[in-house]
Design goal:
With 199 residues, this protein is of the alpha/beta class. Helix content is 38%, strand content 19%. The chain has helices at residues 22-28, 30-49, 63-67, 77-82, 120-126, 139-152, 169-179, 189-193, and strands at residues 13-18, 54-59, 105-109, 131-137, 156-165, 185-187.
Length: 199
């Protein structure tokens, strides 16, 4: 199920590129991730051309933060034990194709959702942004958490169905076809980037 392409006010819209890091691309696999990253590049170019604010979200742990992850956290305890996603490590870096520009905001987080452990909510409120365009890895991770949190914050979410992917393609399909449309507009990157924006 795909929603109609929404009308967007550029002054009240932001693009969130979430967890486009080497570790996540590697987990998905280069072949499966390549078209997703290409779509992220396309929407990033579109946002920059239309002067839409861009925020990059990445996960990364300082040593003390990693040490404080409890065994009860099934997502991040294995990351802690493997010493992965440490700040400054190659796998925690944002992939070169979507590197943040100097004037683009970067939020580092230590949990799954884009709002969790960041000041993203404050950044959006300060700019009177009420609409989020979402792209990220993975569909069942940062995308799901952020779509839910955006809805709880009364923000409009636009999910780019082909600018996200999951370790399990079947889970991806269920989320973009049956779960996300209940609280978000779900469209393709091309549908977004070829539509004329409201002035």
């Amino acid at each position: 199920m795909t929603n109609a392409v929404p009308e967007l006010d550029p002054s009240a819209t932001a693009l969130l590129l979430m967890d486009f890091q080497y570790a996540m691309v590697g987990a998905i696999g280069d072949k499966a991730a390549a078209p997703v990253v290409a779509n992220a590049v396309a929407v990033l170019d579109w946002a920059r051309a239309n002067e839409i604010p861009v925020a990059h979200i990445r996960v990364g742990f300082e040593p003390t933060e990693a040490a404080e992850i409890p065994d009860t956290n099934k997502n991040f305890a294995p990351v802690r034990d493997a010493g992965m996603l440490r700040s400054g490590s190659p796998e925690a870096e944002i992939v070169d194709l979507v590197k943040p520009a100097d004037d683009e905001q970067v939020f580092r987080k230590t949990r799954i959702g884009a709002f969790s452990t960041t000041s993203l909510g404050q950044w959006l409120a300060e700019r009177d942004i009420d609409t989020l365009i979402l792209a990220g890895l993975t569909t069942s991770g940062v995308m799901l958490s952020t779509v839910r949190e955006a809805s709880d914050r009364d923000l409009r979410a636009v999910v780019l169905r082909d600018a996200t992917a999951d370790l399990d393609p079947a889970v991806h399909e269920v989320l973009v076809e049956r779960v996300f449309p209940a609280t978000a507009d779900v469209i393709s990157t091309a549908e977004l980037t070829t539509r004329k924006l409201a002035q």
